[in-house]
Design brief:
It contains eleven helices and eleven strands. The chain is an alpha/beta fold. It has a domain of 263 residues: 3-Layer(aba) Sandwich (Alkaline Phosphatase, subunit A), CATH 3.40.720.10. The chain binds zinc ion.
């Protein structure tokens, strides 16, 4: 069966599945391992990440890869219409399908999934509250605020993840500042305008309201970092800070961290790219240390670390690290998976990117019915 036939038959199957969706209350409690999915993102090449001699991520390559299963040859399939880019690659990881997205109506180039995401599968299968299924996003990527649930005939907002990002914090802060009314009138007007701009960027994301637990998370964040935006870490260090605090305060069962800063190389400076890879590597050290030190996560957490997409490797191009030209290298990624129940070793054959979602599903004990790929063979002990 080729992929297109497979797509059609799974769509038919999905239509019948949609009718039998169980109510949340009937779902069983979750007892499986926690999963932390780290998008080593913004698009990275193998050369600067997993190549032993030239890596800028030594902790990933020399400490984490030997801790579990290392897949040096993960590939984005060369299907017609597949774009090797950030939102697309991230949705491949979350749905286990290619091209399972559409542009959000009325907003332009923002994508929303049209097949169930791992968040939705997980919350449909198990009674896990929304604040324990989390997506941590970059501060200037409101286009990735739509991945918490998808559109179409599948599970939807009832099974969404919650989102932690600076964008979300600003929504919280502006709402509080307006409700408190303590600022002088001209400053209040500015806050009102700021809030309006935030809501325009992300018309769907503001509803439903965050859970009381996530609201309390922001309340503590505001106490520590204030209203100015000058005190909190920025860029991918901010994502690490949000993630480590979330692990301590919200105990997510499934956490996805969407690192992104290597992508600044689009503007031409290769040292921004390699520096950003090193910062993600430091972030990985903090995340893994936090998990190893916390009884909720220690010996009960599987890490899956994988890029959204590769980048070009054309030494003749003015900026040799783009990723929009469908080059072979832009399709080449990798994955590192470790934790309880995961074997140690190297998978020395090509693995398709669509295997990641069904593999996470298998590790957590549900089925990603509409994924195109299969769970990785031989990964589990
Ligand atoms: Zn990019």
């Amino acid at each position: 069966m080729d992929r297109r036939q497979f797509t059609l038959s799974t769509l038919g199957l999905a239509a019948s599945l949609a009718i039998q969706r169980p109510a949340l209350a009937q779902s069983a409690g979750y007892r499986g391992p926690n999963v932390i999915l780290v998008r080593f993102g913004g698009g990275v090449r193998r050369a600067e990440t997993i190549d032993e001699a030239t890596t800028w991520a030594p902790y990933l390559r020399h400490t984490l890869a030997p801790r579990g299963t290392f897949i040096p040859d993960l590939r984005i399939d060369r299907l017609e219409g597949v774009n090797t880019s950030h939102a697309e690659g991230t949705l491949n990881l979350l749905t286990g399908r290619y091209l399972a997205y559409r542009e959000l109506p009325g907003v332009g180039d923002q994508l929303e999934p049209t097949a169930p995401t791992l968040f939705e599968y997980l919350r449909r299968a198990f009674d896990i509250p929304s604040h324990q299924v989390l997506l941590v996003n970059g501060e200037d990527r409101p286009q990735e605020e739509f991945f918490t649930f998808g559109a179409g005939d599948h599970f939807g907002v009832e099974y969404r993840s919650e989102m932690l990002s600076l964008h979300r914090y600003k929504l919280y802060r502006t709402a509080m500042q307006l409700a408190e009314g303590r600022l002088p009138e001209d400053e209040l007007r500015k806050v009102q305008e700021e809030r309006q701009t935030l809501l325009t960027k992300d018309p769907r994301g503001a509803t439903p309201d965050p859970s009381p637990q996530v609201t309390a998370f922001w309340e503590r964040w505001r106490q520590d970092f204030g209203d100015t935006g000058f005190k909190n870490p920025r860029g991918d260090r901010l994502l690490t800070e949000l993630s480590v605090r979330a692990m301590a305060e919200l105990q997510p069962r499934f956490l996805m961290v969407n690192y992104q800063d290597p992508d600044y190389v689009h503007w031409g400076n290769p040292s921004h790219y390699t520096r950003a890879i090193a910062i993600i590597d430091e972030g990985l050290q903090r995340l893994v240390s936090a998990a190893d030190a916390n009884p909720f996560y220690r010996d009960n957490t599987i890490f899956v670390i994988t890029p959204d997409c590769g980048r070009d490797a054309n030494p003749l191009a003015e900026v040799p690290f783009q990723h929009h030209f469908n080059s072979r290298s832009a399709h080449e990624t990798w994955a590192v998976i470790f934790g309880p129940g995961i074997g140690k070793g190297v998978i020395d054959r090509p693995v398709d990117q669509s295997a990641i979602a069904p593999t996470i599903a298998a590790a957590m004990g549900f089925s990603a019915d509409r994924a195109e790929g299969d769970a990785l063979d031989g990964l589990f002990l």
